[in-house]
Design goal:
The complex is a heterodimer of chains A (87) and B (395). Chain A has five helices and no strands. Chain A is mainly alpha-helical and 87 residues long. Chain A has one domain. The radius of gyration of chain A is 12 Å and the shape is globular. The longest helix of chain B is centred in the C-terminal third of the chain and has 29 residues, at 317-345. In chain B, the strands form two sheets. In chain B, strands 1, 2, 3, 4, 5 and 6 form a six-stranded mixed beta sheet that branches. A five-stranded antiparallel beta sheet of chain B has the order 8-7-11-10-9, sandwiched between helices. By secondary structure, chain B is of the alpha/beta class. Chain B is built from twelve helices and eleven strands. Chain B is flat, with a radius of gyration of 27 Å. The chains are: A mainly alpha (87), B alpha/beta (395). Chains A and B meet through helix 2 and helix 4 of A and helix 7, strand 11, helix 10 and helix 11 of B.
Chain lengths: 87, 395
């Protein structure tokens, strides 16, 4: 996870053709709790998100990529990827 | 904000290029919304090399502080090139405003009325209300049928139909159509111009000078590449000087060349600092755009950006309110589903969220849909007892 560029999320955001506002709305819709400004700081790598927040942002982007016909290119947090199957 | 008279005339600006003067006829009110349009037009006319400019206010009903600013900036722009603005026939009220603000001292005031026909028929050029840059045949006919005016060179003709109609939501689109027409008329290498705007997360063309240009834009949206798409996303300009040598957009470029386009200049449109679209200028000739053209394009783009910024564009307030309501509903469903899972399986809120997230990733369905199913399932009456909704976890 440390090898990822600090502005990884922002690169994906641009690829997904979402404005900051649109991404925030999608993130908020998925239950994200950060303000638009905090989210922007995370996008550019100025703030490090919690694992949970990371996953919500990643998922907001990935749902957009699915809409565009893609898969889930944005990596989730390690915890998310390793966690055992949910009940 | 209403005019003093009985009727409020719709805003519009006509541009008449005479032998000695360029006359900008302003109709209606110049205020916060319409001021930037006046600025954009004045700028483009000055940038086009015109110096003897007459601002005809005979049909201007009202100027607010923003309107005065427009006049002040026209004065300043002209002063930079050693010219003085002429203001013609302001109403008593507007004249008084000019006087008290001191602006009257900086302009040539001309009181006589222009003799261009009887008052009632002077409703300005054809009013454009057609969708995205298309004029119905009827309107074209009317446009060319208003006799008594000087014959304009071909390149200027589009300017004759640039009356924008700012009726609520139409303001921005009208203004952008205006920008497109002005750019088409004044940028030397331009064979066609369009404006793309991102709405509902998708790019679409708001104004285009003709069908080929509309097709060019659509090809870029379809292929997801091209200078227009890049300028809209990156917020900086993209110039494809000669499509024959272009390697950046391998899918789009052949389509463009098939339509006879060989050079493209896309300048970003910004609402505030956010890129929300692009002003696209197309040419059939390679290397068509001179440095001057590029500067003009930048001027138009920044004019359009000012319009978009002042109108709070990109997000119409209705649209934003709708999206927020929707987002809140979706959020609520997700919270409910979390609650159901927490109660049923004794999970923490975060762990419950992870369950929903994992399922969404695995099935490829939106998280919100999965949450809705969890909630719906919980509401169904259960045959067996002991595990109903609200039962706390028993492991």
């Amino acid at each position: 996870m440390d090898e990822r560029p600090p502005d990884m999320f922002n690169r994906f955001r641009r690829e997904a053709e979402l404005t900051h506002g649109e991404l925030w709305l999608r993130y908020f819709e998925l239950g994200g709790m950060s303000t638009a400004l905090e989210l922007e700081a995370v996008l550019y790598g100025a703030l490090w998100p919690t694992g949970h927040d990371h996953d919500v942002i990643a998922h907001a982007l990935n749902e957009r990529f699915v809409e565009l016909g893609g898969n889930h290119p944005v990596p989730y947090s390690e915890g998310m990827e390793d966690a055992p199957e949910a009940p | 904000m209403t005019a003093q008279g009985d009727t409020v005339r719709p805003f519009g600006v006509s541009v008449d290029f005479g032998d000695h003067y360029t006359v900008l006829g302003v109709t209606g009110e110049v205020d916060l919304v319409t001021g930037p349009m006046v600025d954009a037009i004045v700028s483009s006319v000055i940038d086009g090399g015109h110096r003897a400019i007459v601002l005809d206010l005979a049909r201007c009903d009202f100027l607010d502080a923003r309107g005065l600013r427009s006049i002040a900036s026209a004065i300043r722009r002209l002063a930079e090139v050693g010219a003085v603005l002429t203001v013609r026939s302001p109403s008593a009220m507007v004249g008084h405003l000019l006087e008290t603000s001191g602006i009257g001292d900086l302009v040539h005031l001309e009181q006589e009325r222009p003799v261009t026909g009887p008052e009632p028929s002077r409703t300005g050029p054809v009013t454009v209300r057609a969708p995205a840059g298309h004029l119905g045949p009827e309107e074209v006919a009317r446009g060319s049928g208003t006799g008594g005016e000087t014959v304009l060179p071909d390149v200027v003709r589009p300017l004759r139909r640039i009356t924008a109609v700012p009726a609520d939501d139409d303001v921005v689109d009208g203004a952008l159509r205006l920008v497109v027409d002005l750019a088409r008329a004044t940028v030397g290498g331009a064979d066609g111009v369009s404006v793309s705007l991102r709405r509902h997360g998708r790019l679409s063309t708001v104004a285009a000078t003709d069908q080929t240009i509309l097709d060019m834009d659509t090809d870029q949206y379809d292929t997801g590449e091209g200078p227009c798409v890049d300028a809209s996303v990156e917020g900086r300009w993209f110039h494809a000087e000669a499509l024959g040598d272009e390697t950046r957009w391998p899918t789009f470029v052949p389509r463009a060349r098939a339509l006879g386009i060989n050079a493209i200049l896309s300048s970003p449109l910004l609402a505030g600092a956010r890129p929300v679209g692009a002003l696209n200028i197309y040419s059939r000739a390679a290397a068509a755009f001179t440095p001057q053209d590029r500067e003009l394009a930048a001027t138009f783009a920044s004019g359009a950006s000012a319009i978009l910024t002042e109108a709070g564009a990109g997000v119409g307030s209705d649209e934003l309110a709708g999206r927020l309501t929707e987002a809140l509903e979706h959020r609520a469903v997700i919270s409910q589903a979390q609650g159901v899972l927490m109660a049923r399986h004794g999970l923490s809120a975060e762990a419950a969220y992870t369950v929903l997230l994992r399922s969404s990733i695995q099935t490829g369905t939106p998280l919100q849909e999965g949450a809705r199913m969890v909630v719906a399932a919980a509401r169904r009456p259960r045959a067996s007892s002991g595990e109903g909704l609200g039962d706390s976890a028993d492991g």
